[in-house]
Design a protein that fits this description.
CATH architecture of one domain: 3-Layer(aba) Sandwich
Helix content: 40-55%
Strand order of the largest sheet: 2-1-3-4-5
Distance between the termini: 39 Å
Strand content: 5-15%
Largest sheet: 5 strands, parallel
Order of helices and strands: EHEHEHHEEHHHHHHH
Number of strands: 5
CATH topology of one domain: Rossmann fold
Number of helices: 11
Structural class: alpha/beta
Mean pLDDT: 86
Low-confidence stretches: 1-5
Length: about 260
């Protein structure tokens, strides 16, 4: 099987089982094979061996991050997370494998996660979305578009973005996918529509596109606007790979401190 069709492994704390199930159902609804353990009683050598095999063979590992995982000092999900991190030791740095998904207001600055998780792009579901998630309600196709971009498949990313019903997410990932394809006119069109119709709620998303395009000053302008608007994306600054072009700019550190996510 290729990297797009092989299974996705969902790892979650037991308190987040319902949200994880909805994520699983939504991913399956769009054709992905998902390994999702629903065992009420976890344990036993055979069960443990099965989990280890699935983590070793899965195409993507999706840890579900929440206030519940932050609160728990111990749990089998932490073993799963560590097994996934160990697997990355044999992978190229640019291989897409870890895809953390945050299902509430938890931010990476105070999340209790392996440091390896902080090196990759996190997906943040809008508050409440994890409990109302399906292939027609939004978010799912943008998550898949993000995955395709990470895997180096901009055509597939564009196809997923076109199916995303949430207008801000659709336009953001359309702009990013078209940029990855070298389609400057298409990127301009999607970005212009995003700015014209969603300025009040999409400052962070606009900054992502600006940064991806190498428009550093404009990206910082939109991040400042996002800070003033209390954009829900701002706590994700540190792990956002689309903002990496900003990291060497002297304005980056002060921005992280202002937002409260500096390490």
């Amino acid at each position: 099987m290729n990297t797009i069709t092989r299974a996705v492994f969902l790892s979650y704390a037991s308190q987040d089982a319902e949200a994880a199930r909805r994520i699983c159902d939504a991913l399956r609804a769009v054709g992905l094979d998902v390994w999702f353990d629903q065992s009420a009683l976890r344990g036993g050598d055979a069960w443990d061996a099965s989990i280890r095999r699935q983590i070793k063979e899965c195409a993507l590992f999706v840890p579900v991050i929440s206030a519940n995982t932050r609160a728990r000092e111990e749990g089998y999900f932490r073993r799963e997370w560590n097994l996934a991190v160990i697997r990355t030791l044999d992978m190229a740095d640019d291989k897409a494998f870890l895809l953390p998904v945050v299902i509430d207001a938890t931010v990476d600055a105070n999340a209790r996660v392996p440091e390896k998780f902080r090196e990759v792009q996190w997906t943040h579901l809008p508050e409440g979305a994890a409990l109302d998630l399906n292939s027609k309600a939004g978010v799912v196709h943008s998550v898949l578009s993000n995955i395709r971009l990470k895997q180096g498949h901009p055509e597939a990313a564009l196809a997923e973005a076109s199916l995303e019903p949430h207008p801000v997410l659709r336009l953001t990932y359309t702009a990013m996918a078209r940029h990855a394809l070298g389609d400057a006119a298409g990127t301009d069109a999607a970005l212009s529509e995003l700015i014209a119709d969603h300025t009040q709620i999409a400052a962070y998303d606009i900054a992502q596109v600006r940064a991806q395009r190498g428009e550093i000053d404009r990206a910082f302008e939109w991040l400042e606007r996002g800070y003033l608007q209390r954009d829900s994306g701002m706590p994700l600054l540190v792990n956002d790979r689309f903002l990496k072009p900003l990291h060497d700019d002297p304005r980056w550190g002060p921005l992280l401190r202002k937002v409260g996510v500096a390490e």
